[in-house]
Each structure stands twice: as C-alpha cells, then as structure tokens.
Amino acid sequence: MKKSDDTRRRILDASAKMFRRKGYDTTTLKDIAKIVKVRAPAIYYYFDSKEQLLEEVLNIGIDRIHDAVQHAIAGSASDISHRERIEAAILAHLATLLRHSDYTAANIINYHLAPKNIRKRHLIRREKYNDCWRALLQEAQQAGEIEASVDLHHLRLFLLSALFWTHEWYRKEDEPTEAMAKRITGVLFDGIGGTKAR
Amino acid sequence: MKKSDDTRRRILDASAKMFRRKGYDTTTLKDIAKIVKVRAPAIYYYFDSKEQLLEEVLNIGIDRIHDAVQHAIAGSASDISHRERIEAAILAHLATLLRHSDYTAANIINYHLAPKNIRKRHLIRREKYNDCWRALLQEAQQAGEIEASVDLHHLRLFLLSALFWTHEWYRKEDEPTEAMAKRITGVLFDGIGGTKAR
Amino acid sequence: MKKSDDTRRRILDASAKMFRRKGYDTTTLKDIAKIVKVRAPAIYYYFDSKEQLLEEVLNIGIDRIHDAVQHAIAGSASDISHRERIEAAILAHLATLLRHSDYTAANIINYHLAPKNIRKRHLIRREKYNDCWRALLQEAQQAGEIEASVDLHHLRLFLLSALFWTHEWYRKEDEPTEAMAKRITGVLFDGIGGTKAR
Amino acid sequence: MKKSDDTRRRILDASAKMFRRKGYDTTTLKDIAKIVKVRAPAIYYYFDSKEQLLEEVLNIGIDRIHDAVQHAIAGSASDISHRERIEAAILAHLATLLRHSDYTAANIINYHLAPKNIRKRHLIRREKYNDCWRALLQEAQQAGEIEASVDLHHLRLFLLSALFWTHEWYRKEDEPTEAMAKRITGVLFDGIGGTKAR
DNA sequence: TATGAATGAGAGTTCATTCAT
DNA sequence: TATGAATGAACTCTCATTCAT
C-alpha cells in the first residue's frame, strides 16, 4: 500500500462520508479535499471528475454489502434451515450497513438523483445483489419454508427497502444488530398477529 | 380562487414535480418557471426563496398523506377489527403516495438532504403523522391483535420505510393498490412462514 | 435600438477588439466584460458561451467585407473595364479591413485555431465571399483582360492572402487606401518587370 | 549527439507540430510530452518554461527558411538574372515552408499572439530574413529588372504575406513546388494582364 | 535523467437573487 | 403581477509549474 493508493482511498472515504451527509450535489470538492488535507485539484490526480467519485462510491457501497451477504450465505453450515440462512443474510446486510459503511448509506441516499448514465451502469451491480436475494428466497419457497402464495418479487423489494432504511433510524445502543436481525426474521416469518387476530 | 392563488399553486406543483424528478439541488428556478410559463423572478413574488419552496413542498407532502390516513381511520366503521383498520391505513398511505402525489414522493427523496433548519421545523409534522401510527399500533397491541412481544417502535419504523419506498418500484399495472394493501397486511400479521418453517 | 441591443453589440465589439489583440484563447470573459463595464456573467445573458462570441465575431468579420466588396462591384458603372472593377473590389476590401474592422482582423487571426465545429459552419460564409472573387476573376479572364494561361484558383488564394494580411503592416499615414488599391492592381496586371527583365 | 540532446530536439519537434496544429495556447505540455513519450515535468529538465519552447520554435521557424533562402541565393550561378535569383529565393521559401517545416508554419500561426517580450526579441530574426529580401529586390531594381516606380517596401510585405500563407491552401498534389515558384515569379514580373487589358 | 504527487492561479459557467420598471 | 437586465458567490475543472526522490 503505497502513499498514492492511500491518498486515493482517503479521497474515496471522504467522498462517501460527505455524499452521505450532504448529498452529491451539495458536497463540493473542497469539502472532500479538506478532509483529506489536500487542495481540491489534487483530486483530479486520482479521479477524472466528481461524477467518477460518485460512481466509485456507489459501486463500493453495493459491493461491500453484496460481499458480506454472499459470504454469510456461503459460510453457513449446510444443514441449517432456509429461515436461518435468511436470518444470516439479514444480519450480514444490517451489520455492513450499520457498522462500517458510509459507502452503503451514501449509495442509498444518492442513487436516485445520480446522473442517468451512472445509474445505468450501476444498475448492473444492484441487480447482482438482488440476484443473491432472489435465489435465497426462491430456494426457501421451493423448500416449503415460505408459503407458496407469497409473491417473492414484491416481498424482496419490500424487505430490502425496509432493511436499507434502517440506517436512518437504527441506534445500536437500543439493540445489538444480531438481536434486530432475529427480530426482523421473526416478524417476517411468523407475523405480528396476536391470538386475537383473525 | 384568484388568479394569484392559482399561480402560487402552480409554482408549488411544478416544484414538487421537479424536486421529485431531479432533487432539490439539481432543480433550478428556471426549470420550475418554465413549467409554470413564467420567468424565474416571478417566483419571488410568491415565495421568499427556493428554500421556502422546498419547505412548503415538504410540508404538503406529509400533510396530504397524513390527512388521507387520518381520514381513512376516522371513517372506518367502529366495529371493524384493528387489523382491518391498519389495512385501511396502509391502503390510504399507498393510494396517496402512489396515485396522487408528487409532493409526498418529493418529500421522501429530499427530506434528508434538506437544510438543517428546514428539517428541524418539518420534523414536527412528521412526528404528528407518526403519532397516527403509534396510536394505531398501540391500540391493536392492547387489544391483543398484535403480539405483546412486538416492539412497536421498531415495527413502525420498519413498516413505514417499506411503505414509503414503494414509490420507487411499484407499478400499478402489476397489482391494484387495494390488493397490495391487503397483501402487505397479510404478510405483516401472518408472516410468510410455510408449513415446513419452524 | 433598445438598451439591451446596445449592450449586446458592445459585448461583440469588445470581443472583436480583444480577439484581435490577444487571440481567442488568451482573451478572458473578464477582459471583455471590463470593456463593456459589466460583470462577466452578464455576458451569459446575451450569449450562450464564449464560443458563440467567437462564432458571431468571425461571421461579422466576413460579412462586413463581403457586403462592402459586393456593394462596390454592384455599384460600379456598367461600362468600366474588368480591371477597374477588380480595383474597386480591392479598394473595398482594403478600406473595410483597414479602416473599420476589428471584426475582420479578428477573423483572420483566429480562424485557424477556432474549434472545428465553428470553423466548419463558418466556412460556408467564407466560400460565399470567395464566390464573389471567383466570378470577378472569371469574367475578367473570359473578357480577355486576364491572360488565359493564368490559373485563377491559385491567383485568388494568393491575392486574398496578401490582401488580408495588409492589416498587419499597413499604415494609412504612408499612403491612402485608394492609392494602395491602385498600386496593387497595377502590379497585379502589369507586373513589376522593368525594361531589362526577360 | 547524446540521448539528452536527442530528447531536447524531440521536445522541440513535438512543440512545433502541436503549436502548428492547435496553436500555442491550446497546446498543453501534456500534449507535447505525450508525443515525446515522457511525462510533462520532464520538459522542465530541458526548458525553463512553455514560453521558452515557443520562443525556440519561433526562432527555428525563421532560421530554417532564412538559411534555405540564403543558401539558394548564394548558391546560384553568378551569371543568372535577378529575376532568376528571385525565383530561386521564392522556391527555397516555398520548399522549406511546404515540405519540411512545422517550425515555419508554427511561426506564422503563432507569431502575432505570442507574448510581447518574445515577439520583441524574435523581431530581430525576422528583420534579418527581411534584409535578405530587401537586398534581393533592391539589387534587381538597381539593375533595372524591377521598374523604378515600384515601392519595394510594400512589394516585399505583400509578396511575403502571400508566400507565407501558401501553407494554408497549397496542396502538393496540384502542382510541384518548382512549378508554383515559376508561376508566381511569372505573375510577379509580367502581371496577369491579357492583351485586352490597358 | 525523469517521475509521482501536489499546488496556485485562474478560467468558463451556473444560479439564486435583486431591483427598477 | 411579472419581467429584463444584471450581479455575487461559488463551483468544477485545467494547467503550468514545483519539488522531493
């Protein structure tokens, strides 16, 4: 890890941090440069444009969470139930989002408003991550652990929206990530209906 | 309704539309003025600043959905179950968000990135809307229709995140709003667990 | 002539002046704005870009000289010789170039280095002016006043190069424009060869 | 010829090429470095500044053409006519300009717009080249091969302007340089006047 | 002999905003 | 009630240049 690579990484980190906090448009290159302790034009030594900065931040945001979830699934014992694997995936998603990543949060906040061409290229990555979940849910349904009547397409979108937005309100002081993953999985599989409910 | 009031409203409508589409920062007053068929400085006859435009759009966005949900709850027959009332609330939320309102979508997209002072003032309104749901869920839990063990705080945040972000992916061609509301309520109360699931 | 039109014209005049003096690239919008007694962004109220400024200056530069030459030809008595008509054209060209026009001088200096797309569009105008001369020379040759062996293509290019570049060295104190036009025409038709020349 | 000298020369060659093609201002040191297959700061090992690059290119541009013309005159047999010597000079000028030299073309294009101090120093060289022609023409006039009435000052400026700008339009496919030199000399001495012309 | 890393100065451009009318 | 004209502030980006290595 040369000094050069380090500076590059620090620029990205600063970008992610600021894009998350103020959004892409409001963030200036000066803001970023200040954090890195460099003058703004130095950024152009490493990146072609502000847009490229956004694109890389966006990509890393998805890649991180994707890797974590994939790893969690792959690493789980082969004899566990699908419900347990889904819980593991939820936990990996939450842990990455909530613990490390300015990148993922920046992704969520800035994706819509990103320039069309960037969004288009980025979509490929998003879809790959979605594929993970598609497979996960499908297998669970085929195994009978998710009711046959459930529309997996809508379920996935609904679940991921909710998971992604935890970064807005989740406070790790309230509840450890593991507990939350378990709780979410519980609601998801068993519902909230009490004994009195129809 | 004087011509003046009408122009004011058209400026707001155009702002909501553009803020939703391109975000607050990227939208220029010229963009808005063009839709209204007016020159940009005319906006200053009705509003003090671009920020005020954002604030009003944000407020209307919440007010609309709040009114709709409140109305739905208040209008429901007194003898229906809490589950049915919650379904009605979900439907009202979705219908407003998905059918009518650039304002509500603009709110969702721009809230985070709004200037701090605006966000602070706006929070009051958001909280009022949240109160609606707090009451709704609490009553249901007290009545035993939601399991006692469920943490309502997290449940509400989780549910509302998911509901708000439907505007990103929902296509009314796929499924009527009513059906979706029913489906969501179903998953929420009964879970997705199949017969094989623990 | 409203104030607006006046400002626009003054911006163009200032541009022509500066483009002539320092060249397009070296001239800044601030330079131009200073002459017009306006701040630089005001230029954008009238023009889309610095390039548009260049294009208009280039066009005016050719148009002025074209109009003058055309007018001189059209206005000459019908019974004069072709040589006399050519002299009139040379005079009109010189008079416009040397007396009024920053525009034409700016054109000469900046044409090569102008962005390709501008050069391409501008070429049409240049060709129209060239057509003037093509016709003028052709008619003279057909009438026998220019020797049949002369290659008009090269002659025109050669003559116009020389005429255009008079703006670099001509001092009207030395010789009135009329005298110079006559002298040039003389050399052109009769040559410089003395009695001793082969 | 050490490697060092070679690199220096290649930097100059690349500069001349680019200054000719895009002009001094638009050419970046990166452009030049790319051709030489070096990084931009390497240029500073050989030259003090971009301006020095320009100055040397400008100088070489004149020197080359000067040497060629001088050599042509000096080398011509002592018994040839002045007209023939002038033709030889024209040929040498054209051949250098049109066949070899990015330097000379770069000179023509960039001289006006060069910084004042450079232009001032460079003027000395230009004047030396002009002296060549002054002498050439004066001797011809004294020998009676150019009419006594011809103003040599204007003649020289006019002729050289035209010669210099051939680089804009000359295509060697049309006519060999030798033929063009002969043709130009012909027009110059004998004029274009046909039998019908006064 | 040459480069990697960085900078200062400044360019064109955009935009919310102002103000006289 | 609305516009034409203009501005100040700020932004992204470019580039010649520097300097340690």
Question: Could you list some keywords that capture this structure?
Answer:
mainly alpha, 198 residues, DNA-binding, Tetracycline Repressor, domain 2, elongated, homotetramer
What report would you give on this structure?
The structure is a homotetramer of 198-residue chains. Chain A contains nine helices and no strands. With 198 residues, chain A is mainly alpha-helical. Chain A has one domain (49-190): Orthogonal Bundle (Tetracycline Repressor, domain 2). The model of chain A has no long low-confidence stretch (mean pLDDT 93). Chains C and D meet through helix 8 and helix 9 of C and helix 8 and helix 9 of D. Chain C binds a DNA duplex (21 and 21 nucleotides) through helix 1 and helix 3.
Quick structural summary:
The structure is a homotetramer of 198-residue chains. Chain A is mainly alpha-helical.
Q: Poorly predicted ranges of chain A (pLDDT <50, ≥5 residues)?
A: none
Return the average pLDDT of chain A rounded to an integer: 93
CATH superfamily label of chain A? Tetracycline Repressor, domain 2
Distance between the termini of chain A: 61 Å
Please outline the major beta sheet of chain A.
Answer: none
At CATH level 3, the topology of chain A is Tetracycline Repressor, domain 2
SS element count, helices of chain A: 9
| Total count of domains of chain A | 1
Oligomeric composition of the shown chains: homotetramer
Largest interface: A-B, 47 and 47 residues
